[in-house]
Amino acid sequence: MTVTTPDSQSVGLHAGDHRREVLQRRFNDRPLLVFWEMTKACDLACFHCRADAQPDPSPGELTTDEGRHLIDELAQLASPRPILILTGGDCLKRPDLLELIDYARSASVPVALAPSVTLLLTRERMRQLREHGIKTVSISLDGMNADTHDAVRGVSGHFDATMATLRELKDAGFTVQINTTVMARNVQQLADIAQLLHAHHIDIWEVFFLISTGRGTDVNASTPQQNEDICNFLVDASQYGFTVRSVEGPFLRRVNQQRLEGVDGPATGELYELLHSRLREVLGEPTHAVCAPSAATRDGNGIVFVGATGDVYPSGFLPLPLGNLRHSSLVDIYRDAPLMLAIRDAAFSGTCGVCSFRQLCGGSRSRAFASSGDPLGSDPACVLVDVARRGVDVASL
Q1: Are strands 136-140 and 175-182 parallel, antiparallel or unpaired?
Q2: What are the φ and ψ backbone dihedral angles of 15, each rounded to 5 degrees?
Q3: CATH number for position 175
């Protein structure tokens, strides 16, 4: 494997490379995804919560008029406009949610929702959301059973409620995305979670690789070798009829590209063998082509996050405010903030800075910051960074 320098063996130019170049030019101008943390309020107490969610709203959360102003900014951008993802806390705790959805729809700004599974997400609320134009909803599932999921979510019976909710969302006609955060307590259950998603005809599986921020600082993350195994497994899982994406695990794109090109990557380990075998056991042979998108989004590159009180961040997991919507333009912050420019230029240090996949992958900027205080440093969750720190020539892997 040769991924250590920019001029070493790398992916040849083809249609996928051209598409990524076009997307990168677009990402320099405007984000693909804008996450708005509408409120800190949430009725759950998930022990890995990025937002440090709480029962009640925080003082100073953006008002309805300020939300409209945010939407107006996005509406002024060229098509295709960014997708505005309304999240939290729990976005259903905002009394003006439907009003803001309607405003975005009138401005031709696409909106998706990431609510919590609580008593607020009723069938009647689902019906309302569909009537107001919402097509895509994401909810979280962090285990194959109640023992695991309920422990993560901090609510007894939440697994059963989540399974009922995802069925109701599908019945209501939503495109349903399931979010799963990988951690030590559920890593061996991933194949069984994939089987659950397949059985319920889920459209998208988005797998989060843990960042030590918020309440997640007390959770055991997967190791670099496990991450490599998980990424290889996720490429396998994407061959069963649902799209697989990663959050804060951009090395999935590197693994997918290496497998597509027939380039040997780092060796897989016991976890991959376990997950691969279990996947075949529960779902049989693959039924579809790989569906793991390769758009090189990462914190600050195609992605921007607006906090509850208007602070703007490269992502929800990178707690470095770049400005505030009450004083600055979101678009100007995205385009011109020095950190955003450096991230989009892939101006990284260490192994990430010399890897030929630094633009396609680029490592998690959030994890680099959480581990070293440097958002442009190397991502310690990548197996290439890990072996380089131990003095192993990654070109020999």
Answers
A1: parallel
A2: -60, -40
A3: 3.20.20.70
What tokens does 315 get? 């992502």
Q: How far apart are CA 79 and CA 385, in angstroms?
A: 38
* Dist CA 366 CA 377 (whole Å): 10
On whether residue 276 sits in a domain, the answer given is yes
Six-digit token pair at 54? 């709480």
pTM above 0.70, yes or no: yes
Identify whether 247 is part of a domain. Answer: yes
Q: Tell me which residue range forms the domain holding 207.
A: 15-298
- Which has the closest alpha carbon to 178: 96, 124, 243, 118? 243
Residue at 43 is within a domain: yes
Among all chains, which residue has been given the structure tokens 């975005």?
104
Domains contained in the chain, number = 1
3-state SS of 139-180? EECCCCCHHHHHHHHCCCCHHHHHHHHHHHHHHCCCEEEEEE
Helix H or strand E encompassing 26: helix 15-29
Dist CA 16 CA 324 (whole Å): 36
- pLDDT one digit per residue (tens) for the chain, 397 residues: 333 323 333 333 355 677 777 778 889 999 999 999 999 999 886 765 655 657 889 899 999 999 999 999 999 999 999 999 999 999 999 999 999 999 999 999 999 999 999 999 999 999 999 999 999 999 999 999 999 999 988 889 999 999 999 999 999 999 999 999 999 889 999 999 999 999 999 999 999 999 975 444 445 788 999 999 999 999 999 999 999 999 999 999 999 999 999 998 899 999 999 999 999 999 999 999 999 987 888 999 999 999 999 999 999 999 999 999 999 999 999 999 999 999 999 999 999 999 999 999 999 999 999 999 999 999 999 999 998 887 766 555 5
Closest CA to 271 of 231, 216, 331, 305: 231
Q: Are 383 and 265 in contact (CB under 8 A)?
A: no
Compute the distance between CA of residue 156 and CA of residue 98 in angstroms, rounded to an integer: 29
Q: What is the DSSP annotation of 201-236?
A: T-SEEEEEEP-S-GGGGGSPPPPHHHHHHHHHHHHH
